[in-house]
Amino acid sequence: MKILVAGATGRVGGAAVRHLLEAGHEVRALVRSAGKAGSLRSLGAEVAVGDVTKSETLAPALDGCAGVFSALSAGTGREAEEVEHRGNVNLLQAAREAGVRRFVYNSALLVDHPLAQRVGTFREKARFEAALLGANGISATVLRPVMFMETLLLASSGPVAFVPGRQRHRVAWISASDVARAAVAAFEKDITGPHELAGQDTATFDEAYRRFSTVRGKRITVLHPPLSVMRLAGRFSSPIEELASMFALFDAAGYASESPALRETFGVEALTIEEWAGRVSRSRTSG
User: Fold this and answer.
1) Fewer CB within 10 Å: N-end or C-end of the chain?
2) d(CA 251, CA 17)
3) Around Cβ 231, how many Cβ atoms within 10 Å?
4) pTM score > 0.90 for this model?
5) 178: domain range?
6) Where residue 258 sits, what CATH number does that domain have?
7) pLDDT for 120-158, tens place per residue?
8) CA pseudo-torsion sign 173, 177, 182, 186
9) Measured between alpha carbons, how far is residue 3 from residues 99, 111, 188, 205 in Å?
């Protein structure tokens, strides 16, 4: 089948492009700028230039597609309202008008938690989940992954990682690649409904960094700046404000799931932190 991937330049969307192509499907990648599409074309994907916030640009991208995988993301609450909610609603409406019958959406764990209302990206994901699962004429799948292992890269700067708050709860971990593989399985097996996706590893941030640094062969020191300091800085920076609210949720509620759906429903055997870290190290060395 031909699948349109929105958010194809992101970590989950990019991995989905690769896995869909490897599985023998045709992929059309939706990008806002043709200049960002070189790597996608080199993989074998067709590229369509469009913007989910401009509904009039979406019909050509959806022509001939059997399904949509949305892995759109945003960095602030304002962006989330524009992209994660309105943009996805536009994409869903355009898909229905184009006769597309499958829509798989990459959401997040705990978007329905009371504290998630303070996190713009989570709040808007929850709003779109409700719209998608309540839509008529389309088979919908919502993926709710736990903490991405790639977060370990984003939170580290050289030998130091900054993790706001105490973060004493154990967290469940998953790689972006395994979420992408679950998306492929959702299309191929016609798996619908909401599903929490968790890998086999559960560890605190400090433990996860120790395991990551062991494979990498370089020690990482984890520092925990107080959330109050993050909130103060967030008064002057929307991305920092969003990050502070997100880590406040993790600090209070943790971020773990015992759902076996990844393996039992989607048939995906998850990478461990060590296996993922080994792949990251090898890719950096070869690059």
Assistant:
1) C
2) 33
3) 15
4) yes
5) 2-286
6) 3.40.50.720
7) 999 999 999 999 999 999 999 999 999 999 999 987 778
8) positive
9) 13, 26, 11, 35
